[in-house]
Amino acid sequence: xxxxxxxxxxxxxxxxxxxxxxxxxxxxxxxxxxxxxxxxxxxxxxxxxxxxxxxxxxxxxxxxxxxxxxxxxxxxxxxxxxxxxxxxxxxxxxxxxxxxxxxxxxxxxxxxxxxxxxxxxxxxxxxxxxxxxxxxxxxxxxxxxxxxxxxxxxxxxxxxxxxxxxxxxxxxxxxxxxxxxxxxxxxxxxxxxxxxxxxxxxxxxxxxxxxxxxxxxxxxxxxxxxxxxxxxxxxxxxxxxxxxxxxxxxxxxxxxxxxxxxxxxxxxxxxxxxxxxxxxxxxxxxxxxxxxxxxxxxxxxxxxxxxxxxxxxxxxxxxxxxxxxxxxxxxxxxxxxxxxxxxxxxxxxxxxxxxxxxxxxxxxxxxxxxxxxxxxxxxxxxxxxxxxxxxxxxxxxxxxxxxxxxxxxxxxxxxxxxxxxxxxxxxxxxxxxxxxxxxxxxxxxxxxxxxxxxxxxxxxxxxxxxxxxxxxxxxxxxxxxxxxxxxxxxxxxxxxxxxxxxxxxxxxxxxxxxxxxxxxxxxxxxxxxxxxxxxxxxxxxxxxxxxxxxxxxxxxxxxxxxxxxxxxxxxxxxxxxxxxxxxxxxxxxxxxxxxxxxxxxxxxxxxxxxxxxxxxxxxxxxxxxxxxxxxxxxxxxxxxxxxxxxxxxxxxxxxxxxxxxxxxxxxxxxxxxxxxxxxxxxxxxxxxxxxxxxxxxxxxxxxxxxxxxxxxxxxxxxxxxxxxxxxxxxxxxxxxxxxxxxxxxxxxxxxxxxxxxxxxxxxxxxxxxxxxxxxxxxxxxxxxxxxxxxxxxxxxxxxxxx
Length: 802
Description:
By secondary structure, the protein is mainly β. About 0% of the residues lie in helices and about 55% in strands.
């Protein structure tokens, strides 16, 4: 809870203008250096908010040049986040709770809210965050205050808004490891009486920090040429801008419009893949796609080590141009275009404050990915086109008595197109359909969400507050899958003109009760009971074969229930802050999905119960120009009553001994009592900062350093025993020289100086093992494609403002 003390003193923020004045009479006026949060949709001091939260100020993110959500993970203990190739293209876990990246049909268990606009598809992990006022990471179920329900947690981003004074700033930097050039800036101020504007932008271009070991030219099994995709892996360019307009239409009526657009192109998620060979093998497995017992020789340029070196090659141009949608020129790539508009209206009165948030959000992404490297072209292309419109209307009472009320309505509609072509088997071109593509699918859904929420807050005394409320939700979604004719050789396995349609409807009530006790201004105790809900639906990433059914693709709702207790204190005249929380939550029918590399199928299910319990704490101690900070978390997560899929190559003796399939081989294993993936038992962060004057004219020196530690965790959904990320520590450091009034800044920033290459997720590579599953053996574990992010980076940055 409240790991706000993790950062340099710049974490603290001066109070922002309240989006809606608080109705809490016990809320003390913030003083300089105190952090302001909006976890309960009102501006209040962090110590007063009875919510498990990590608050990251914009200055703290700037201190270590953090602009990506995946880079933020090291700042938040127990967060494991990274990009992925398919489905949602994201893997985001908090306290061991999250959603697999494989299914495009899942909403994320850990979702995003940006300036009041809900975003739950996962691809938001790729969007750059800049000119940020604060980021709040709320842990556990979040049902009441932020639009749609979130069971695992919520990441709320608040960007800077214009003020009544003119201000502008610009910074430029260079990252030596990835040869990254970037520029970022803003200009803000009044345009007329009661009218303000702020324009912010970010531009970046990176060559990539990972080595591509693929040969410049490679002849594949069909005698066709493939080429090295790029000299380096992990390259990308980003162009992004955001405009904010604020208008005081009347003394008690304000309108704010935020609109932005991002255009991002890179080598795709698989550009950061590393190969991990199954069962401890030291050489890659020879793919045998036709089961003939004669494998395709592995690439001599591939290894079995997570070391920043991997082979990434194009597919032949002839293959890309032969009715292979979104394949471009055969180079691996991803192109994401995203835009949004958010109109917030705030009406204040002596009785109620009324807030309306109307938003529109759209992204369109196309990509081409190869999960098997240079030797074997297991590639797939995707179109992900998503549109969302939402409206939230919120009323906050301002009665002078001990009881106040928050209530409102939320509605959204969305439409998602998710089309996929896959080139998996290297065979000659089909004479009928004129393509090399193995299968083609058009998938998607259209849906709507409606909810009503309310909370009553009663001040039982000057020091005791009792709050209780609930959100009623109604979710509807109509999903579809349709196969298109592809290669004639696979017409029996993947026939065209198949179609599955699913209709999902469900409602839920998620209550929440919080008791807060404040014996003094700088001391808070609280206890809370919470529930959360994430709707079910249909797996639109299911592989369409003649055996595919609607029932096999359906999954039920995920629900969370449990509670937490916490304590917070500010001591020594404000110099020392201490925070601690303990929590216990059950996640019922957790939505899970696994990839079967033999059938190229996506298997979806609900996993009994996931139980998480633990303790978190942090401190921040300021000693004049020197400060110390730290945060630690112990998290115990385990499955209960869950029978799920075996991993490929798992034999009967290894535990694959449940639920025999049609062939007689077993298909399932017992997960009861086991730790889920991406759930480190312990994580922490410790750091220090020092600031000293350099000259009498106002030049200062600022030093800061933080080390983060995460214990081991499994990174596969099927808990393969050879898929364990070992415990690791990352070191960040920054040195800055600031001019008078901080008008000029020169900084040297080091992030992940220990260069720990961390695996955030992995999947089996098709036809690279995975045989003997559910039998007496022998079993062969498949090679894995592992997503690795957050390489070491050293930045030189120069900035100025006026």
